[in-house]
Design brief:
Shape: elongated
Number of strands: 9
Helix content: 25-40%
CATH topology of the largest domain: Rossmann fold
Order of helices and strands: HEHHHHHHEHEEEHEHEHEHEH
CATH superfamily of the largest domain: TPP-binding domain
Number of helices: 13
CATH architecture of the largest domain: 3-Layer(aba) Sandwich
Length: about 270
């Protein structure tokens, strides 16, 4: 394993454009429950999963009812404000500051990469702390709106201050398209990168699952390196999408890779 950690550091330092693709595995290490794991939210409550598949249709049919439910029914993930970034998030943020990592593209909606200090983050499935206009695509911090007051004054749904369109949570629900700006930039970054860190995701949920494949399929004459960090082998491992697997927790592996990167760059540990 030590040799693979050193190899990952070498690949990152040699690379000209590295990105990270992250999934639930990095967030569960901060204590956030996952959905489909052995003790996942939906594993324990299958009816909650069935309801989740109906949320986007409910928003389209009755935005006011959608917002009443969001403001009165407790979130399945609890209060996301209570969670803190773990060493994996912090290591990725430091790699960005060093100029090693160009972007993080995450499936997670918890904002922990931003809390850790990452600035170049694409929230592929949205961000639970933001609202998005379904008409113009503008995003707002949730704190910009006093949603409880708006509900109390019977003014739901909240409206975009720019175009007057209806706002919904920025979180991408089942059957809802990935916002075009995020989808297009994610594909662009995946096709551009020459090193991709796959952290805590098996990348089986589409369309996110396309991104490692896009990163792997570089133009003729160029090569990309796909480094996978997961607790167990995944379809990415089995299908040869990843060049090698660092098997373990992202919160343990990423700091070790970072220390090796610092050594190669001549930065004192």
């Amino acid at each position: 394993m030590t040799n693979l950690i050193k190899q990952a550091a070498v690949d990152l330092v040699k690379g000209k454009y590295a990105i990270a693709l992250t999934g639930a595995g990095i967030s569960t290490e901060s204590g956030i429950p996952d959905f489909r794991g052995p003790s996942g939210v939906w594993t324990r409550d299958p009816e909650a999963e069935r309801r989740a598949y109906r949320v986007y249709a409910q928003f389209q049919e009755d935005p006011k009812r959608y917002w009443i439910d969001r403001l009165t029914i407790p979130s399945l993930l609890g209060n996301l404000d209570q969670y803190a970034p773990n060493p994996g998030h912090l290591a990725l943020a430091e790699m960005e500051k060093m100029g090693i990592l160009k972007w993080v593209i995450t499936q997670n909606v918890d904002g922990l990469h931003q809390k850790a200090g990452s600035r170049r983050v694409l929230d592929y499935h949205g961000n639970a702390f933001k609202l998005r206009c379904v008409s113009c695509g503008s995003r707002f911090e949730s704190g910009d709106f006093d949603l409880k007051k708006i509900m109390g004054e019977d003014r739901l749904p909240p409206l975009c201050s720019g175009c007057g369109g209806v706002l919904k949570s920025d979180v991408v629900h089942f059957h809802e398209p990935i916002p075009s700006d995020v989808a297009e930039q994610s594909l662009e970054e995946a096709s551009r990168c020459d090193v991709a860190l796959i952290c805590g995701t098996s990348a089986v949920v589409y369309p996110f699952a396309r991104l490692p494949q896009v990163a792997k399929q570089r133009p003729p004459g160029s090569k990309s390196v796909i480094i996978e960090i997961n607790a167990e082998p995944t379809p990415l491992t089995e299908r040869g999408i990843s060049d090698y697997l660092l098997q373990g927790k992202t919160g343990e592996m990423l700091p070790k890779i970072l220390e090796e990167v610092k050594g190669l760059k001549g930065i004192k540990k």
